[in-house]
Design goal:
By secondary structure, the chain is mostly helical. It is 49% helix and 0% strand. The protein has 6 helices and no strands. Helix 2 crosses helix 3 and helix 5 packs across helix 6.
């Protein structure tokens, strides 16, 4: 059950947002309310809200090819290395036109880089 945010929460809300730098959604989860409720309360308190951050940084095709194609890592492993979700990795692969392997299929071999002698 969601609890309303009252004035008694103001000092803690300000601290979580300005000092701890939690997101509106993180604060909302803490209090069991919507992020819009946190947003509205902070505005009523006169808190200057941070600019919305970009969702995630985008990755270059070369990085994704190296990890996913050349090294044969799974979407989850690539995500873990880049600190993003497997879903985000999937979107980036699609954006760069890098074909995905079949679900559950892991590359049975790793492409070796060759150097000419």
């Amino acid at each position: 059950m969601k609890r309303p945010l009252g004035q008694k929460h103001n000092p803690e809300l300000r601290r979580l947002y300005e000092v701890e730098e939690l997101s509106l959604r993180q604060i909302a989860k803490h209090y069991g309310v919507s992020h819009q409720a946190v947003h509205d309360r902070l505005l009523r308190m006169g808190v200057t809200l941070r600019e919305r951050s970009r969702r995630r940084e985008l990755f270059e095709a070369e990085v994704l090819r190296e990890l996913y194609v050349t090294n044969g890592l799974t979407l989850a492993e690539v995500g873990a290395k880049l600190n993003v979700t497997p879903y985000f990795v999937t979107r980036e692969l699609k954006r760069h036109g890098i074909p995905r392997r079949k679900t559950g299929a892991r590359s049975s071999f790793k492409i070796q880089k060759t150097t000419e002698v």
